[in-house]
Amino acid sequence: MHPRTAILLITFVGLSTTRPAAATTPMPIVRLPNWTDAVDVSSRTYDFNTGWRFMRGDPDGAEATDHDDAAWRNLDVPHDWSIEGPFSPSGPDAQRIAYLPTGTGWYRKSFRVPRSFDDKKLFVEFEGVFRNAEVFLNGRAIGGRAYGYSTFRLELTPHLDSRGDNILAVRVQNDTTADPFSRWYTGSGIYRNVRLVVTDPLHVAHWGTMVTTPSVSDTRATIRVETRIQNAYTSERLCVLTSRIIAPDGRIVAESVADRTISPLTEHSFTQELVVSSPRRWSPDSPDLYNLVSVVRSDDRTLDIHETRFGIRTIAFDRDRGFLLNDRPVKMKGVNLHHDAGALGAAVPAATWERRLRILKSIGCNAVRTSHNPPSPDLLDLCDRMGFLVVDEAFDRWTAPYGDTVPQWGRLDLTDMIRRDRNHPCVVMWSVGNELDTQGEPVFMDKLRELVRWTRETDATRPVTVVLAPKRFDTLEQHVDHVTTIAEQVDVIGLNYQEHLFEALHEAAPHLAIFAAESYPYYRGDGLVHDAYLPRNPWLDAEKHAYVAGTYYWAGFAYLGEAAPKWPFHGWNGALFDTTGRPYPVAELIRSFWLDEPMVAIVAKNEAIDAPLPTRPHWSWPAMADHWTLPAALHGKNIEVVTFTNCDTVELMLDGVSLGTKRLVDFPDRMITWDVPYTPGAIEARGSVGGSVVATHRLQTAGRPARLTAHADRSSITADRRDVIHIDVRVTDDVGIRVPSTDHQLHYSVTGPGKIIAVDNGDVTSSDEPYQGQTRRAYFGQGHVVIRSTGHPGTIKLTATAAGLRPVELSIPSR
After folding, report:
1. What are the E-state strand segments in 573-637?
2. Interval 676-710: pLDDT, tens
3. pLDDT under 70 in the chain at which residues?
4. CA R_g for the chain
5. Residues identified as active-site
6. Residue 654's closest CA among 619, 680, 687?
């Protein structure tokens, strides 16, 4: 049997399934550069993502230094083995995890350390391992983590071989059959970044800085810096801590120096206050970031330099004005994001998160909720830089079958998330849970009070929320009483699909802060929560009431798992965008709500139209097409055309002939409708403000499929083995108009310093094709390819082909 990590409190069940053997090549040995006295930020942390060996299965003794892993796969992490498939319709409750495999797997890595590390402290840091991670160094258990979304650090120093090879081994056990954990696809493996951290024994402790802004005005900001310094020497050390604040333009704008003799094997927390004149305040419109540089010196030597990025801003929730950012009301225009990215599974590159955030920005989105777990640090870094307001959520349900670790590990996982994320200006709220199954019961109230207390003890600068599921009550008064009783335990109450309560809640308890944590993306009647609820879009309810902080639509992007109604459905598509980032027509409606820039968009609406439709009734919308290539059966028949706009008026043109002009104010649901006799040709909408045309949108009927086109999301890729580029491939007619009715089998090949890591088409309802490979059929005339750099400069060339169509080639510089 395997030695078991002492920290883990649960029993592991090993699986005997194995992956076919890979080529028997020697495990690569990572040699680290020497430590020098000229310490800088980059020399403290080393990328530990490359050079791993992996196998699925649970071989005995895989933690041992002499274990034979020659037949294991060579790979880099982040890595998600579940997304590699294959899909299988069998298995209990398999639709939760997208019908993809889980089980047990092992990772091994060999590395050597230079002699200059002999007097240093070495740590390995995992951003996320899903799940039940056990970590071994040179055959000895050194720790682990059960919760698959937590970042954790383990010290390597006591068990290192400073003169030879070291073997780091990680056992990952994700047995969803015997131990169900999640309502959605989780992925399996070391699916986030790994790094090696090397420090002097006198150093800034792990997550040891906390930067707050207790006082901010236009002329000055007081910056409070708390820094924990750890002295791991066996003798006392004089520590001189210099804290410098670097402005967005690179200037040093504040500095403070403090010193303290720290006893051996203890730590000390320094508190310093610095003043920044004329601060540039962080906001979604101006996401300005400052850097805190913490320099640790002793005996006239620099021992550690640690950098913390932060923003200067204030947040508050006002009973009448909602969410205040820098003393101004800001409505949260938000979406919920799961942690997977379709064909990439849970191992999501930073470039993919950046692309998704750019897509959300394009419709006016300014907020995300990390549903329902601690997010990737890459995502939060990007939200800081790109300007998104984040609800940082720790847990989904708290008890079996989807939250068994919360009673055992709740405090550690929650407080680690807060310590890791508390310097991000984008984070404006901590959420301790979502849709708890014992909602309102005594056991729920006790656990809620406990989690709120732990949160406030760790960070008292942000409000705490809990998100409530809709429940049925005999009367509206009973429902309001249920919500207000729970809301008194938190700072802000989050409501899922309960916009009809806004006015009654505000009247009963006007001091409560409210936000819509989950909302349907389209108009709906009741059917779920209250018979008196009228058909409206949730944003209109939030926009109408100033005291409501905002709305987060479910969901931003389609995701894997939580599938319905049955195989081959393997994901959730009740979202604004599909898994490839292509907008569903409903996204144009939200864009008309949120975007300040004038826009107009056309969709054709008819039940006879073949269009992607959500599978869950309350998240559904009618058949809507973002094209004008409709079935022959509709020729000559009236089609309901809808124009989404934020303009004053819209004129609709069919083949150059005006069908009239309509005013947005005459359509309270903000959907301007038209009856249009369908004929192939061109339909155009012209949006006007103050009598001047400021936005247009045109759809043209496609001809016969003739060729492929390819469009990359960026013009080049970075040659670092991490960066990825996303390419949309379309089936078009001779003039480049997408042909939506085609499902050609698309074949992809790559030459040069790049590798195809995923193929997709946005279909989570009917396809069981693998996400890894070089072929996938078109879905509504579109395919999608993700290419990763192999680490060398040069030119990557993608070729896409399909039977009977002219192929396309796309060249991508790798720099």
Report:
1. 600-605, 624-625
2. 999 999 999 999 999 999 999 999 999 999 999 99
3. 1-43, 92-93, 400-408, 523-536, 615-616
4. 28
5. 435, 518
6. 680
